[in-house]
Write a structure and sequence with these properties.
The structure is a single chain. The protein has about 500 residues and is an alpha/beta fold. The chain folds into four domains: about 1-175, Rossmann fold; about 185-240 and about 340-365, no CATH class; about 245-325, Arc Repressor Mutant, subunit A, CATH 1.10.10; about 370-490, 3-Layer(aba) Sandwich (Trna Endonuclease, Chain: A, domain 1), CATH 3.40.1350. Helix content is about 45%, strand content about 15%. It contains 21 helices and 15 strands. The strands form four sheets. It has a five-stranded parallel sheet with strand order 2-3-4-1-5, sandwiched between helices. Strands 9-10-11-14-15 form a five-stranded mixed sheet, sandwiched between helices. A three-stranded antiparallel sheet has the order 6-8-7. Helix 12 (about 245-250) packs across helix 13 (about 255-265) and helix 16 packs antiparallel against helix 18. It is globular, with a radius of gyration of 25 Å. It starts with 9 loop residues before the first helix and ends in a 7-residue tail after the last strand.
C-alpha cells in the first residue's frame, strides 16, 4: 500500500483512508509550511488509487501558461499524452474536466489534485469563481470524485478555502494542516534513508533543521550532525545557506514586513509582546499588522501565546521554526559581516562557546514546547485534565521583589501544578546552591501570585526538571525535584 512509504502522519493517514473509502464526493484542503511534504503525501497516497490528475501553480506565471500546464496534465491523465488545445479560461478547463469525470467508470475514483492553489488562483485568473461554480453545480454530485487543493501560503488557504465566505463557504469536507515531524518521526525518517543516529544526534540536527522533510533529505550518510550543519548551513552551496530569504519571498507578498517582525522577535530573545513589537518595528497597530502576524502564525513560523492568568491583549509571540531561529542567530550575522563562508569546520569551532550554550538552551526549550504530549505522558498525566502554558510575574515598579518567568507549567485538575524547568546539558544536570535558591524563589512567587495577585492558587506545586541526561542527585535535587524527564522521553 502507498501509505507504507509514508513516515509518521498517523492522523493524516486516517483522514486519507476515510476519503479513499468514501461513497460521496470529497473536497480536501491541505495546507502547511513550505517544504513540509504536502505534495509528497498526496502524490504518494493517491497517485495509484484511480484516475489521477495533478497540476501545480507557479508563482507569477501568466494565466495562459498556467492553463497550458493544466492542459498537459489533463492530456497525460485522460488522453495518453496526445497534445490538445489548451483551454482559454479556467471555466473551460473545468468544463472539459467535468466531461471526463462523468465519462469515467463509476466504481473508479477520479483524483484531481490542484497543488499550490494560491499561485493558480492569481488575481483576475477566474479560477476561484470557476471552482465555486463547478463544485457546487456538478462536482459535489459526482460520488467518485476526490478534489484536493493544496497551498503553502497558509493564510491564503484559510481565508479563501477553509474559512471562505462566498460560494465555497462550508464546502470543504476534510482538511489537513500538515506539520513538521516530531523527534520520533524525524528519527524514523532518517532511518528509512539508511541513516542511524542516536537520540542526542537527532536532537542536535532537529534544533537546526527542525522536522522539515525537505531539509532532512539533505542529510548524508557517514557525516556527524556537526559536519552536516557545516555543509548545509555554512557553505555557499549548502541548501540552507540561502534558503531563508527564498522561503519568505515565495510565501508572502509582504515578505520584507514579515522578515522585520521575525527579526525583532529573535532580537528580543524569542519572546516579545505585541505592544513591544509595535514599538520596535514602528508598524501601525491595526488590521495590516494583524494580517502579517496571522500569516506568520498560519505558516507556523511564529506562535502567539497568552501567559496563564493574563488577558488576550497581553499576548506574546515566539518563533517556533527551528531553522529560522538558527539562521537569524548564526548564518545572517556572517552574511552581513562579510565573513568568509565555507571555512572548514565553522560550526565545530563554536560548539564549546558560551554563545552556543545560550542558543542551545533556547533551541531545546523550543523543541520541548513542541513535545507537550510526550512531556505530559512522562509526567503520568494521560488521565488527568490539565492546562499547559507559560506564566510570568512582573513586580511593581520600585518594588524590591524578584520577578519570575516560567516557560512551561501544567495546571492540573488533581489539585497540583507541575512547574517545568528545561535545561540543555551534555551531562546529567547539577542543581547548585544558587540555582536552588532561584527555584525556591519561583515556587514562592507562584504560591503568592499564580495565576494572578488577586486570586493566588492554593494548589500543591511540584517541580519537574527536563534535561537531556536527567539529573545528578544531590541534596538540592532530592529536596526540590519531584519528576525527572530526559531526552528519551521526548522520542515516545
Amino acid at each position: 500500500m502507498a501509505e507504507k512509504s509514508i513516515i509518521g502522519r498517523k492522523e493524516e493517514l486516517t483522514i486519507l483512508n476515510l476519503i479513499s473509502r468514501s461513497k460521496e464526493a470529497e473536497f480536501l484542503a491541505v495546507y502547511g509550511r513550505r517544504r513540509i511534504g504536502k505534495t509528497f503525501l498526496i502524490r504518494e497516497y493517491f497517485s495509484n488509487q484511480g484516475i489521477y490528475l495533478e497540476t501545480a501553480g507557479v508563482k507569477n506565471l501568466s494565466l495562459a501558461k498556467q492553463l497550458e500546464n493544466f492542459s498537459e496534465a489533463f492530456s497525460k491523465t485522460f488522453f495518453e499524452n496526445i497534445p490538445i488545445q489548451p483551454p482559454t479560461s479556467w471555466k473551460q478547463a473545468f468544463e472539459r474536466l467535468t466531461e471526463q469525470i462523468k465519462a469515467a467508470p463509476k466504481d473508479k475514483k477520479v483524483i484531481v489534485f490542484l497543488d499550490e492553489l494560491p499561485w493558480l488562483a492569481s488575481k483576475k485568473s477566474g479560477l476561484m469563481a470557476a471552482l465555486d461554480y463547478y463544485w457546487n453545480l456538478y462536482w459535489s454530485r459526482l460520488n467518485n470524485l476526490i478534489l484536493i487543493v493544496c497551498g503553502s501560503a497558509a493564510s491564503w488557504m484559510l481565508e479563501n478555502i477553509i474559512h471562505a465566505k462566498g460560494g465555497l463557504y462550508n464546502r470543504i469536507t476534510k482538511r489537513i494542516l500538515l506539520k513538521a515531524f516530531d523527534l520520533k518521526e524525524t528519527k524514523e525518517f532518517l532511518k528509512s534513508r539508511g541513516i542511524t543516529f542516536n537520540n542526542k544526534q537527532v536532537l542536535d540536527l532537529y534544533m537546526v533543521l527542525g522536522g522539515i522533510p525537505f531539509y532532512l533529505k539533505e542529510v548524508k550518510k557517514g557525516l556527524s550532525p556537526t559536519q552536516l550543519v557545516d555543509a548545509l548551513c555554512f557553505h555557499k552551496n549548502g541548501v540552507l545557506y540561502s534558503e531563508f530569504n527564498n522561503v519568505f519571498r515565495s510565501l508572502f507578498d509582504h515578505a520584507e514586513v514579515n522578515l522585520q517582525i521575525i527579526r525583532e522577535i529573535a532580537k528580543a530573545g524569542n519572546s516579545i509582546s505585541r505592544e513591544q513589537l509595535i514599538k520596535t518595528t514602528k508598524l501601525t497597530s491595526g488590521s495590516s499588522l494583524n494580517r502579517r502576524l496571522e500569516e506568520l502564525e498560519a505558516s507556523e513560523f511564529i506562535k502567539c501565546y497568552v501567559p496563564l492568568g493574563k488577558k488576550t491583549r497581553d499576548r506574546f509571540y515566539r518563533i517556533v521554526d527551528e531553522y529560522t531561529l538558527f539562521y537569524l542567530r548564526w548564518i545572517a550575522p556572517l552574511m552581513h559581516s562579510g565573513t568568509f563562508i565555507g571555512e572548514r569546520g565553522h560550526w565545530q569551532k563554536i560548539l564549546k562557546t558560551a554563545e552556543r550554550a545560550v542558543w542551545s538552551g533556547r533551541a531545546f526549550e523550543s523543541v520541548c514546547l513542541k513535545h507537550l504530549n510526550q512531556i505530559a505522558q512522562a509526567l503520568g498525566l494521560e488521565k488527568i485534565a490539565y492546562v499547559s502554558g507559560s506564566w510570568r510575574y512582573v513586580p511593581p515598579k520600585k518594588s524590591k521583589e524578584i520577578g519570575a518567568q516560567i516557560d512551561l507549567l501544567f495546571d492540573r485538575e488533581d489539585g497540583t501544578i507541575t512547574l517545568c524547568e528545561i535545561k540543555y546539558s551534555d551531562h546529567p544536570f547539577t542543581i547548585e546552591k544558587a540555582y536552588a535558591k532561584n527555584l525556591l524563589q519561583k515556587i514562592e512567587n507562584m504560591t503568592k501570585y499564580y495565576p494572578n495577585k488577586k486570586n493566588p492558587t492554593n494548589k500543591q506545586i511540584f517541580l519537574a526538571l527536563i534535561a537531556l541526561y536527567g539529573l545528578k542527585t544531590n541534596m538540592y535535587s532530592e529536596d526540590l525535584v519531584q519528576n525527572e524527564i530526559c531526552l528519551d522521553d521526548l522520542f515516545v
